[in-house]
């Protein structure tokens, strides 16, 4: 079986979506906001549509800027390695 020498290294990596981070990192940026939004039913029903419109903006722009600054100058999987280290320390 022949080996392909010219195959790019980053072929199987997830594509960059916005501001230099992937869709899985979008999830990571949205988790703290989702925890806060879980308290939304106690505020009132009018807050639901407002939060549905504003949450993506907050996650993309504020969370994206924070994660991009955190990732700057670090290896490709730094955030996930850091989370794994924190998880192991918590055990």
Q: Can you offer a commentary on this structure?
A:
- This protein has 91 residues and is an all-alpha fold.
- The protein has one domain (23-90).
- It contains three helices and no strands.
- It has helices at residues 23-37, 47-71, 78-90.
- Helix 1 packs across helix 2 (47-71).
- The longest helix has 25 residues, at 47-71.
- The mean pLDDT is 77.
- Keywords: Membrane, Transmembrane, Transmembrane helix.
- This is TIGR03750 family conjugal transfer protein.
- It comes from Serratia symbiotica.
- InterPro entries: DUF3487.
- The chain crosses the membrane at residues 26-47, 53-70.
Task: Identify low-pLDDT runs.
Answer: none
How many discrete domains? 1
How is the main sheet built? none
Mean pLDDT, as a whole number? 77
* Strand residue percentage: under 5%
Transmembrane segments: 26-47, 53-70
Protein name: TIGR03750 family conjugal transfer protein
Organism: Serratia symbiotica
Pfam families: DUF3487 (PF11990)
């Amino acid at each position: 079986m022949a080996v392909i020498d010219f195959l790019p290294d980053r072929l199987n990596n997830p594509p960059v979506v916005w501001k230099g981070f992937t869709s899985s990192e979008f999830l990571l940026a949205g988790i703290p906001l989702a925890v806060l939004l879980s308290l939304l039913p106690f505020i009132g029903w009018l807050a639901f549509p407002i939060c549905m419109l504003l949450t993506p903006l907050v996650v993309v722009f504020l969370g994206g800027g924070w994660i991009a600054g955190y990732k700057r100058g670090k290896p490709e999987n730094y955030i996930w390695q850091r989370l794994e280290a924190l998880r192991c320390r918590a055990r």
